[in-house]
Amino acid sequence: MAVPAAAGSRTLPERPPISAPRRPCLRETSGARSERFAGQPGLGLIGLTMVVPVLLFLGLGWGGAERSLLVLGPMSTFALPLIAMIAFWWEDWPGTMLRAPLAGLADTVLVAMGGVLLTVAGQALVGNVDLRGVFDPGAVSGQAPTFPATMPVAGAVFVAMLELTLVSEGWPLRRLNRYAGGLIALVAAWAIGVGLYLALVDFQPAAGSGLHARHGPVAGAQLGAALVCIGVLQVGFFVVLRGWPFAGIGSRALRLASANAAVLGGGCLAYLALAGLADIEPALISAGAGSVVASGLVVGMLFEGAFDARLAAGRARLANFAAVAVLAAVIYLGLTAFADTARWTRAEPEEWIAFAGLNALGAGVILHVAIGRRWPFAR
Questions:
Q1: Which residues touch 117 (CB under 8 Å, ≥6 apart)?
Q2: How confident is the model at residue 342 (pLDDT cuts 50, 70, 90)?
Q3: What does the pLDDT look like over 176-219, one tens digit per residue?
Q4: What's the pLDDT tens digit per position in 295-311?
Q5: DSSP secondary structure code for residue 311 in this structure
Q6: Within 13 Å, how many C-alpha atoms sit on residue 362's CB side?
Q7: Crossing angle for the helix pair 282-297 and 313-339, nearest 10 degrees?
Q8: How many whole angstroms separate alpha carbon 197 and alpha carbon 150?
Q9: Can you tell me the distance from the alpha carbon of 306 to that of 37, in angstroms, rounded to the nearest whole number?
Q10: Is 351 in a helix, a strand, or coil?
Q11: DSSP 118-150
Q12: Angle at alpha carbon of residue 79, lines to 73 and 85, rounded to 5°
């Protein structure tokens, strides 16, 4: 990740550094950029010591796998758009006002607080506000438990935020200063996510649960699985492949139109093929696709430039693709093996696998690389 300048209200570059195309060969780079690429894969490997604790805390820290899913699942999903705003729009502000490690810690605390508040907002959308339903994994009928009721809207907001930020290149909001652009993008993502939830989701809770019934064409789990499939293409094209092949299209209008059509249409078609033709359950689709997203973030962010810096462009893309595929299988099998040892009463193991990959592992990578700037392993 390129280190941004310190100017407070300046306009942003055309694209977030994480999705901006780069020259693939190490000999074509210079200075800190060359030094950073030369540090791979060591930087990525040692960075796991910062990522794994986040995975363990989010995945297990609320008293085990299922209890953590019931409480931290919604909170961390609502926090993901905030992470994207701070990392890709605000360029790590307000943490930039402090020195490391306080910089990353301040941003993390802000994300955690915002995640709680937005979870309460999501609870108000799907039912009655009741803090026991937010914080208590044993919340019962009448207390509006946030899992799984709020997950579709939380996932929709995050996918919309990535679509606005990465796929649409932040256009035209990146012409504004970083604070205004990021806030408007977050508000727009919420408007899109809430609109999708209200228009599409069918939800029939038990009477007296504290949750509101809704009538729509798809179940929340189906929408969630389709959103994760879209997320696979967002991360694959714009984190792992840095915008290829769309970045080569000179016309912005054509580039953005083709990128959005490919990501949104391709993700929906992938879900329909898996659910309709292959008859795979939505929870299993989310678990598998979530492992691919987590793998893409590890390869594209934690091990940024490991192949691109040493191989020709075509070979680097193939190497990245192979690395994502292999690592996704390892993540999925590892999380599945652990989930099979846990006891499940209110949730399904596939739901925890999706959460552990997408939220716990994915958030850890973004926090370490994009917000913490690889502290303490890189200056």
A1: none
A2: very high
A3: 888 999 999 999 999 999 999 999 999 999 889 999 999 999 99
A4: 999 999 999 988 887 88
A5: S
A6: 31
A7: 130
A8: 10
A9: 6
A10: helix
A11: HHHHHHHHHB---HHHHH-TT--TTS---TTTT
A12: 155
Whole-number average pLDDT of the chain = 91
Give how far Cα 345 sits from Cα of 104, 336, 359, Å: 36, 17, 21
326 conformational bin, left if phi > 0, alpha if psi -120 to 50, beta if neither: alpha
The tokens describing 75, both together, are 């909170």
Kindly report, residue by residue over 315-327, the tens digit of the pLDDT: 999 999 999 999 9
Q: Which residue has the tokens 């083709």?
A: 258
Residue 87 pLDDT = 93
Residue type, 44: G
Q: Write out pLDDT tens, residues 56-96.
A: 999 999 999 999 999 999 999 999 999 999 999 998 898 88
User: Residue 362: which of 119, 141, 103, 77 has the closest Cα?
Assistant: 77
Measure the CA–CA gap between 145 and 138, rounded to whole angstroms: 9
Torsion angle in degrees (nearest 10) through CA of 373, 374, 377, 379: -10
Q: What is the 3-state secondary structure (H, E, C) of 146-187?
A: CCCCCHHHHHHHHHHHHHHHHHCCCCCHHHCEHHHHHHHHHH
201-202 and 218-219 strand pairing: parallel
| DSSP letters for 59-81 | HHTTTSHHHHHHHHHHHHHHHHH
| Contact between residue 301 and residue 366 where contact means Cβ atoms under 8 Å apart | yes
> Above 60 in pLDDT, residue 26?
no
> Which of these, 306, 330, 333, 326, lies nearest to 317 by C-alpha position?
306
Q: Give CA separation, 18 vs 242, 311, 372, 374, in Å.
A: 7, 19, 14, 14
pLDDT digits (tens, 9 = 90+) for 355-365: 999 999 999 99
Helical pair 220-235 and 178-200, crossing angle rounded to 10 deg: 140
Looking at residue 305, its pLDDT comes to: 85
d(CA 110, CA 156): 21
Q: Rounded to whole angstroms, what are the CA distances from 303 to 23, 90, 215, 323, 332? A: 16, 23, 44, 10, 19
